[in-house]
Amino acid sequence: MSRHGKKTMFIWISLVLFMTELLFALICCRPVIIPRARLRDESGINSTFPNNVPAQRNPESTARELRVILSFGNGEL
Fold first, then answer.
1. Domain assignment of residue 2, yes or no
2. How many structural domains does the chain have?
3. Which of 1, 24, 57, 63 has its CA 20 to 30 A from that of 18?
4. Domain boundaries, position 30
5. How many H helices and E strands in the chain?
6. Which of 74, 51, 71, 55 is nearest to 63 (CA)?
C-alpha cells in the first residue's frame, strides 16, 4: 500500500471512530448533554419567566378604575 493510501485509511478510520463515539455519547448521555425542558408552573411561584408578565392594559380602563378607587377613598360612592 502506498503512503497516500495509508494516510487515506487513517483518515477514514479516524472519522468512523469519531462518528461512532459521537453517536454513543448522544444515545447514552443525552439527558446530560441535552437536558429536557421543564414544564412551567402556572401557579405563579416563579415569576421570572416571560409568560408570567401581565398583559398590557387599556389606558382608558385603567384611568376609569383609578377614578373609581379615588372616589371610593373619599367616601363619595
1. yes
2. 1
3. 1
4. 1-35
5. 3, 0
6. 71
pLDDT tens per residue, range 27-74: 888 888 777 777 665 555 555 555 555 566 666 777 777 777 777 666
Average pLDDT over residues 6-20: 95
Task: For residue 24, give the nearest of 33, 13, 12, 35 by alpha carbon.
Answer: 33
Cβ atoms of residues 55 and 49 within 8 Å = no
Backbone torsions φ then ψ of 53, nearest 5 degrees: -75, 130
List phi, psi (to 5°) of 29.
-115, 25
Residue 34 sits at the vertex; the CA angle it makes with 12 and 15, to the nearest 5 degrees, is 5
Q: Give the predicted TM-score (pTM) of the model.
A: 0.41
Distance between CA atoms of 12 and 32, rounded to whole angstroms?
Answer: 29
